[in-house]
From TrEMBL:
Keywords: Membrane, Transmembrane, Transmembrane helix
Superkingdom, natural source: Eukaryota
Keyword Transmembrane helix attached: yes
Localisation per UniProt entry: Membrane
Membrane topology: Multi-pass membrane protein
Descriptive protein name: Sugar phosphate/phosphate translocator
Length: 341
């Protein structure tokens, strides 16, 4: 049964394919293959463009509700997962063989209940992340988001008592210092915008910690967790947008039927799904070093492209120095973590 299914795997997404005996280098990161290079480029491409399209919808078109965008992204992702799972292109369980009789089934209610904390923290993470893009220009958004590591360290300390070395703490201090230096002359400074970014950092830290404690014990892979998040969060968010009147505001939005705005929204929804997939694919095919380098390169592209497209932050030497300090700090932190120092 298993052998008959192998030749037909060309249409499957490569997210759960185990490496063959001659392909072990895919998971070791000693040499990047062509497939691994495509995965790394896809990750950076999706990450940068998603920020740009979300920023375009919320700032350029002045779309009134970040909640509606989040809801549409969830509906799009859940629908795509349903189609891919029904066609047996993906699986939701870790180690679930494609040819098993259970491969067409979905997540049982017991597992859905087990992952409820992950889904709820994901909802807060998505809402705060989407709203944080609105009030801050893209370069400063990227810089401030690098401070997420601080909140992650705090959450890990209180949850599992995790402690860090002096070298790690010094790299984090450099990240924080760079963020403050970069924002010292931000003419578009907005207290609410900065506050939402830091709230987004806190929710990100909680979400990551929740995945670490609950998601990994659920037996679900990335697609399975995405499916649970969609099933739990979409109805809650739909109810929330109804009582807040966000859907009514959306229906009266003047650019709702604009071709440009609709294209931005469609791209945002597709990229939100593609980003989650490309992150998992990149970390599967490449090494941790490659993923870290991609993340830092992605930040550089995001800052540069956001500066060119949306402005909001005139060229200032102090800001450039702050951006550079933040970049060096995040790179040093990643290097130290990979080396275990």
């Amino acid at each position: 049964m298993m052998t008959s299914a192998v030749p037909g795997k060309s249409s499957l997404l490569p997210v759960v394919d185990l490496p063959r005996s001659g392909d072990e280098s895919l998971l070791k990161g000693s040499a990047m293959t062509k497939r691994g290079a495509y995965a790394a480029l896809s990750y950076m491409f999706c990450a940068v463009l998603l920020v740009m399209f979300n920023k375009a919808a919320l700032s350029s078109y002045n779309f009134p509700s970040a909640n509606v965008i989040t809801l549409l992204q969830m509906i799009c992702s859940t629908s795509l997962l349903f189609i891919l799972k029904r066609w047996k292109i993906i699986t939701f369980l870790v180690g679930d063989p494609w040819s098993s009789t259970n491969s067409g089934s979905f997540v049982p209610p017991k597992t859905l209940l087990h992952t409820l904390p992950v889904s709820l923290s994901y909802l807060l993470y998505m809402l705060a992340g989407m709203e944080s893009v609105r009030g801050v220009n893209v370069p400063m958004y990227t810089t401030l988001r690098r401070t997420t590591v601080v909140f992650t360290m705090i959450v890990e300390y209180f949850l599992i008592g995790q402690k860090y070395t002096i070298s790690i703490l010094c790299s984090v201090v450099l990240i924080i210092f760079g963020a403050f230096v970069a924002g010292a002359r931000d003419l578009s400074f907005d207290t609410y915008g900065y506050a939402v970014v830091f709230v987004s950092n806190i929710t990100t830290a909680i979400y990551l910690a929740t995945i670490s404690r609950i998601g990994k014990s659920s037996g679900l892979n990335t697609f399975g967790l995405m499916w649970c998040n969609g099933l739990v969060c979409a109805p809650i968010l739909l109810f929330w947008t109804l009582i807040r009147g966000d859907l009514a505001l959306t229906l009266s939005f003047p650019f709702l039927f604009s071709t440009g705005f609709q294209a931005v929204m469609i791209c945002s929804c597709i990229l939100a799904f593609a980003l989650n997939y490309s992150i998992f694919l990149n970390t599967t095919l490449n090494s941790a070093v490659t993923q870290t380098i991609c993340g830092n390169l992605k930040d550089l592209f995001t800052i540069t492209l956001g500066w060119l497209l949306f402005g909001g932050l005139p060229f200032d030497l102090l800001n450039v120095i702050g951006q550079a300090l933040g970049f060096v700090g995040s790179a040093a932190y990643a290097y130290l973590k990979i080396k275990g120092k």
